[in-house]
Design brief:
Blueprint lengths: L9 H13 L36 H13 L5 H67 L8 H15 L2 E4 L11 E9 L6 E7 L1 E4 L2 E4 L1 E8 L1
Parallel strand pairs: 2-6
Antiparallel strand pairs: 1-4, 3-6, 4-5
Length: 226
């Protein structure tokens, strides 16, 4: 057979080179990769997107098993004893704190009630002390016979004394009783052979007690032994 000297078609030759080039993708860091067969033409592969690593099958199950194994770890007898002792100490500490707080609250209430009662007595004492001159005038009027029974002035005096008695006001200083410097104020001293101790000879102005609080000392004349 004679050699075929017919020149080959340049178009078909160029096409074969293009087909070979199309089977080679864009260059990457470690060389060239080959296009997968059957990929549609005209949609180049974007080699710049990072590759997605797929997690191995069952990875979540492995992590769950590890977590359960940590939670289900058993403690030794020494560890359990230490935990029990720490729990007992904590309970005892909180009980002690609760008892201390309760005692402090009780003491606080007691102090408040005591201070409230003391302040009340102070206020009442100041009011009564301011009215003592009026009481003295009524006593002098009664001693001179000016308070006739049934008169308006006698009725007023009776109401005032009843109101003071309601608050526990008592009179101190009586003739013949032993002199007490805590309750009496000696204005005059008279030597006398009839007494062996200091004795109240006369009451010049009576004193008053509000409960155990001295509102005013009694002004008296004292007979002293010779």
């Amino acid at each position: 057979m004679a050699d075929d000297d017919t020149p080959k078609d340049e178009t078909s030759k160029g096409k074969s080179f293009r087909d070979r080039d199309e089977r080679v993708t864009e260059p990457v860091a470690d060389g060239y990769t080959k296009k997968p067969t059957g990929e549609p033409e005209g949609e180049p592969v974007d080699s710049d997107e990072p590759a997605v690593e797929e997690e191995p099958v069952g990875a979540e199950d492995v992590e769950l098993i590890d977590a359960q194994g940590t939670d289900d770890a058993e403690f030794s007898d020494d560890d359990l004893e230490l935990l029990a002792e720490a729990e007992r100490d904590l309970v005892a500490e909180y009980r002690e704190r609760a008892a201390r707080a309760e005692a402090e609250l009780k003491n606080f209430r007691t102090r408040v009630e005591r201070d409230r009662a003391a302040n009340r007595e102070i206020v009442i004492a100041e009011v009564i002390r301011s009215l003592l001159p009026a009481i003295d005038d009524l006593d002098r009027a009664d001693a001179h016979g000016d308070l006739v029974e049934g008169s308006p002035l006698a009725i007023v005096a009776q109401k005032i004394r009843a109101a003071f008695d309601k608050y526990g006001l008592t009179q101190v200083g009586e003739k013949g009783e032993r002199f007490d410097p805590k309750l009496h104020e000696a204005l005059v001293r008279i030597p006398s052979a009839d007494v062996t101790v200091d004795t109240v000879a006369d009451v010049i102005e009576p004193g008053y007690l509000l409960g155990e609080r001295l509102i005013r000392a009694a002004k008296v004349a004292v007979s002293s032994p010779e």
